[in-house]
Amino acid sequence: MSLVWQFVLSQYRHDRLHFWLGVLVALLPAAAGILLLGVSGWFITAAAIAGLMGVFLNIFVPSAIIRALAIARTAGRYGERVLTHDATFRFLTGLRNQLFAAYADRGAKGGRSGLLLNRLTVDITMLDAVYLRLVVPLALAFFVAIALLAVWISISATLFLMGLVFLIAWTGLFWFAYARADRKTARRADAASDAMRLRAADLAAGRKDLAVYGGLEEAVNGVLIADQRLFHAEDVEDRRVDRLNGISLFIGQTFLAVALLVSVWGAISGLMSVPLAAGLVLVVIALPEILGQPLLGLVRLPRTMLAIRRSLITTVDGPQETVRLANGRERETSGPENAVLRFVDVSFRYPGAKRNVVEKLSMQIDPAEIVAIAGRSGCGKSTIAALASRLRLPDEGRIFLDGKDLTLLDEHSLRRSVTVLSQRPYIFNDTIAANLRIADAQASDAELWSALEKAALAERILQNPNGLQTVLGEGGLGLSGGECRRLALARALLTKPDLFILDEMTEGLDVRTANDVLTRFLEFRGESAVLMIAHKQLELNAADRVLQLPQQPARQYAHPA
Amino acid sequence: MAKTEQKKASDQGGEAIATVQGAAAVGQPFPDETKCLRRAGTLLAISNLLWILQAALIAAALGALLNATSGLSELPSETTSFWWLPLSSGFGIIAVALLRVLLQNRASNIARKTAREVQTRARATLLGAAIASSPAASFPASGAFAAHVADQIDLLGPYYRNFAPQSVRLKIVPIVIVLTTAIFSWLAALILLICGPLIPVFMALVGTRAKAASAAQQEELTRLGGTLLDRIRGLETLTLFGALQRTKDEIATAGERFRVGTMRVLKIAFLSSTVLELFSALGIAFCAVYVGFSLLGDIRVGTWSGALSFPVGLFVLLLAPEFFAPLRAFAAAYHDRSAGLAALEKLEALLNEIRSDEQVAGNWKATPTDTELSESLPGFSKPPSIEFVGVSLSLAGRAVFKDLDQEIRPGETVFLNGESGCGKTTLLDCVLGFHVPDKGEVRIDGCCGQDMFFRLRQNVMWLGQSPRLFHGSLKANLLMAAEKASCVQDDEIWAALRLAGADGLARRLPRGLETPLGEDGFGLSVGEIRRVALARAAMRKNATILLADEPTAGLDEDTAQDVIRGLQQLATCRTTLIATHDPAVLKMSGRQLDLYTLREGSAREIAE
Q1: Number of Cβ within a 10 Å radius of residue B342
Q2: N or C: which end of chain A has fewer CB within 10 A?
Q3: Does the structure show a pLDDT above 90 at A226?
């Protein structure tokens, strides 16, 4: 509950005016709908009596009212929908931006991009149900119920009591739908759906592996088993929905039968006129449509709550690392001035890991120096690159960049001073110009061409009629592995950092391309110092100094039995 | 011409064929399922039409009340005979209500079950097609495939469950209501008839615009999703270049564009439902006014004979809303239809894409045709020989092999080299049966045929060029290769890991063997995935053939040495084929085959 409440509150705070306006405007068509039937019933009964008795009845006012109500209901419905949807989408767009920002600030860790995408698209879309299917219908039902009770009590206490009983019955049904919400089944359905997606992706990508090892038929069965699990969970949910809707329908119809009897009794005993009695009966016919609405939102609540939880967790979990940065332990901010980069007794351990991957490492890189770090894979080379570029924070020890404590540097100056060239550069599904301007938003076309020239990619791009505006990535120009690396090099050469970090830049390239990319980098790097994570002889040869990391002997850590 | 028609007919009739080959369009219901959906719609309509009975009861009770109070009969409060009618009306309404609830539930159950069957079958069809095409054939991106299997097929649910019964209801209920109304008043029926059919006309006018806008919006959504995914994947790059803030702004702009677009589409959609509401509200209002005037005696037309009586007038008024209710429900379900039809189109396209690579699919079979494999097949108890006899194969119009003749003796180690693109991987795929040669045969111990290849795949250590690890723990991944997963000791797993040089890596993982691996072996580098895959191969200890494709690509020298040592160990007493151009691997003892020259038909063997 608190989660939903928290969510509703945050939407309320986002835009109080529209929050209330949506509810208020929704009242108009609801009231018009009830009155339309009520007045019609009253009118024809009164007309019948007048016709029988031959007395005068002002017919123009009621018939005008009836037509006016018909139009008010229609127009109100349109206004309500536009208003409530607009308010909701404004809020959700803001929420999406917030989620993305929170995720981005937390730092890029791991490849769960598909999951996050689901949060930003599917989950967010589901969240519109909170205001549209819960808040507005519940508020509507509440106000309509209050108004009806007021009208009923002004006519007769019996009528009031009858109405109260049925309104309480509906409230009870809502409470039951909410309190007995089947969260377990919702989670099961969610898990089954995820499993189905993952297994299908595994099947599609690993058909060769499955043909030899797991068995293709078994993989298909795995997906279909998840499908069956989803089926069962959804069946339980849907049956529940049907049951609740059936009960709601039944309450409405019983209400109608009882209202009919009470009205007849009231008219007979002279408590109300016959037209009024007929009007009251017809009002009850219109009620289930309005009072039953919250049920639709309530039965889907478990699913909605899962979506809320997932998205709120992303925002709440988000800023931790940033907090840790800002609280940066109180220390002197300056270190030795002569070094570009300096590690002092740095230790680092991945969350959940059994041992430090970097252990009491001390080193320094002087201006314009090229230092290579070598060692077996798994000895923490890439972690050092991540530490030096502040993608990770050390658990112990300190890192200085140009004599300043790395944890205290602001993001902007840090990114201006360090450029990282990684083994898997990401090429965005965007134009070449946009891909390059990630490094320097203000770079002119001439500067872009010069960078491409330096990376020996200009000719390739020139072949394309769209030049810098050529779209890369999916559905665009496909660059080979080597060309991607060259593009990443061009991007890096647009910056003028104090320190370049090369994380196995030539990994996966053939010898000739690797040589060319490396040579070009060294030629155009200017006065910057270079930290090179390397395992190729080619790279080690280019370094002024090689730092060999020890491989930790296996017996040092416990055998995980 | 006649032949194609015949084929069509047999496709529609043959359910079994449809399931196996997916010959019938994917995601379509069978005739008996269509019947079920129609039945659900009929039940829904009957439940709806029972309202006529209830309306009559209400009208009768209130009519009696009017009679009683207007003094046309004796004073009511003293006669129990008066109360008989309202009371039985009340109970009648409740009894009918029960019946309505039951019918509705029944309809919903039938529709839901039927829709689920169609969905499950569509999934089976897609997955069946995925394994019916050779693993070596080109295939849609895994993400797209998974999205189709999960999301697109999900969209079929509401289409069949909701829209199909509602369209049946639309065909029955309004007509019955108009006819019932017409019995008492042709003018009231005429009011309904005029307001009713006008609705589809106006909705069609608004709807065509809505459809275009909705398609545009769908594209906008895809674009937003694409942009988001792209930026999320490249987040590290963006962070490192300090471009995060700009990206946030960009995402905000894209989100804003999406919001504005969504509202534009919704406004049109709301407009069409407003048209519907307007006509239904006006229809009810006109009916009420007509009935009122008629009762007053101001209007004398509209009935077949005489004036409208109060109960009849009330009855006609009560029926009016139910005339419009199916129209509104249909309109609400209409977008389920558009979504469902769009999904069907996409599924069809995906299926065609999967099946399009027929050239490679060839005679590939995922499972043996004969469940009891014939006894004559090699038992793989000792290393077999591998023979290529006049093998010719062309892929995508390019001849990869032409009359290739080559024999690999039992237990021999052979290195395939040659520059990239000369068919090293294709040759290994031929040995695994993923490719069936256009001409000639690949013989294992003198045998060939799909059943033999199926048996071979259960008896081979294979390390692919880009091995895939699956969702599940490291241990589960390794056990996939074991013959009897339940009797494997952890020691054996560690031995396999050690052999592949991956034991240190496994120890570093946060939960050891139980560490879950995800998409693309989440958290592992390419080299690490390759070593785990080698360990997986090594788990298959009884295998007598070893096939490896570029086993040292992406590994540093030390790790590569570990892997080579492992390969060396595995290669003894196995018929071994290793595709590589790594000089370190070539230092192992064995024969080298330069595929580039072999391809031309003349084998040039390099001395051992």
Answers
A1: 16
A2: C
A3: yes
